[in-house]
What does this fold into?
Amino acid sequence: VDTSLMVSSSSSVSPVILSQDELKKIAAYKAVEFVESGMVVGLGTGSTAKHAVDKIAELLHSGKLKNIVGIPTSKITHEQAVSLGIPLSDLNKHPIVDLAIDGADEVDPQMNLVKGRGGSLLREKMVEAATKKFIVIVDESKLVNYIGGSGLAMPVEIVPFCWEFTLKRLEMLFIEAGCVGKLRTTGGGGDEEPYVTDNGNYIIDLYFKKDMGDLKDASDAILRLAGVVEHGMFIDMATTVIVAGKLGVSVTNK
Ligand code: 5RP
It folds into this structure.
């Protein structure tokens, strides 16, 4: 654990209690240290990745980084990068990404991830599957003993056609793990509408009472269902995980 990034309230030893957002920023800035001039960089989505995109723009404008090309993983990150003046491209023109930086919702001890609670899992997976180095940036609240272990959602992007049917089939796959699926919605107070992804699809959030078993088997079973586009488990994809916690920041490489 590198404690050099801990902040002290004065020259005395009492540390400042950092907010979750400050921890996210510390992890993000640490990841940006790996970005070099001339790189094609996958730009992640979410409140943690946003700090990394801000920092890359700052370094570009100060001249410390040059000739960066960003590949955004969502419409919102695309908008952020455009507003900051980061030159952008896509996987058609740059099929090999040098480095991608993104947040995650869960990180297990093997560096497997859950992503997509922000809804961008498909584009994130496409960009992050095409990168040579994938740096995951999280605060310590995202660490879990096993995937699904936070009790929060594991998202699955599906086509809107007959979504209830697909939801039931997803639940049936994991009946022994007590899986319950919910269509993600926006709005409230009786005005809920299905949440629609950047790709025009819906999201089913899966909740597990128990470990879902072998992750590769679970992934294969989900992807075999017609109607499923992609799921939010990123198995064996991260090459580096940066965790910011109250005691400092750790960088773990695979
Ligand atoms: C979006 C994602 C995000 O990376 C994930 O939800 C983490 O978000 P945050 O950094 O806001 O906690 O996968 O689809």
Summary: The longest strand covers residues 131-139. Residues 122 and 199 are 8 Å apart (CA to CA).
